[in-house]
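Notes to self, MFS transporter:
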Amino acid sequence: MPTAQSPVLGLRENAAQFTLLVAVNALVGGMVGQQQTVLPLLATDEFGLTGYTFIFTYVAAFGLTKAAANYFAGTWSDRFGRKPVLLVGWLFAIPVPLMLILAPNWWWIVAANVLLGINQGLTWSTTVVMKIDLVGPARRGLAMGLNEAAGYGAVAVSSLLAGYLADQYGLRPAPFLLGLAYIALALLLSGVFVRETRDHARLEAAQHIRRADGLHDHLHENLTDRQIAVQTSFTEPALSSASQAGLVNNLNFGLSWGLFPLLFATADLSPGQIGLLFALYPGVWGAGQLVTGALSDRIGRKHLITAGMSLQAVALALIAASGSFTGWAAGTVLLGAGTAMVYPTLLAVIGDVAHPAWRGRAVGIYRVWRDSGYAVGAILGGIVADLMGLHAAVWMAAAVSAVAASAVALRMYETHPRSARASRGRG
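result:
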């Protein structure tokens, strides 16, 4: 097994640490899943909230703080190392379940989601960077597929468990006891067993070879933080296209988080049925990434992202047009499949293009844009739902997803070196 003194790149060579990080990321996802089914119902049943925009404040608070935490996770992981950032992220999670259980008013819920956003930004970003460090360039898509499958599979399982617990024992405290267990286990694994991976990134940087086509020559090792932010956000076609597509992807997730349980409740479904419907989306999303991440290593990134964003648009249109369990189930399954095609592949694009010396910062900037989508989806969805109804808000998301698919098709180039060479050979 590789040691801190002699790092070796590769999934097989680092299987034990990689598997441990997959388990940690599952616990990160579980922290979100424990509340997704329950909080919209708490808002209406216990706190008497009726305005959709107001109900979605907790999603917006989560998204904004997670986006900001992503930036610091990337910067600090490059500067201080990955493991310290991971541990600090879990410390921020400790008060969250207790605040949700004890909350006397809605602002406690919002405050808990501020802390949860910090936890998610620091821990999820760091596990992404650590896995990319370990596997090296050859199997980056597979690594991201496994990482995101663990995280969003746990979101689905925890959503189901929380819905069941709410059905059996009430909305509080039972569903949130899951979070306390997740935090205790995560602190044990992260503190005792996880090892630092920054030396793996340094090894890859030492072995780094520029692309023969010259596409990345402007992305050399010594970019400033400002240059990295500008390239990832606006000017570099692949990096900035990935950031835009990531924002729209999480716009859909943020809107679904706040809106889907309320939409499904209009058909007089039980909390357990609503939990099942909500779990289908991240469940298919999570399981599908086991296939799509590795598939992007074989067929390339760009077309998988374009097709996935297009499928999300179709799925949202089906959900908006439906009014029953069956139609919503079909729509959420398709939405999960489209998201599975996009999610790990976008992270693989960042890993393909960013230099190992500033990879953590590039991942952080990408995730700032992507996770801003939570807030944009929650606020925009809430405003449209208040003005025009729940179904209109979902139609809006479908239209935005279609536009995003077109933008990727027009602007992003293929970033996977082997697939890019094959495309030029056929040309």
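- DSSP finds 18 helices and no strands in the chain.
- Residues 106-135 form the longest helix (30 residues).
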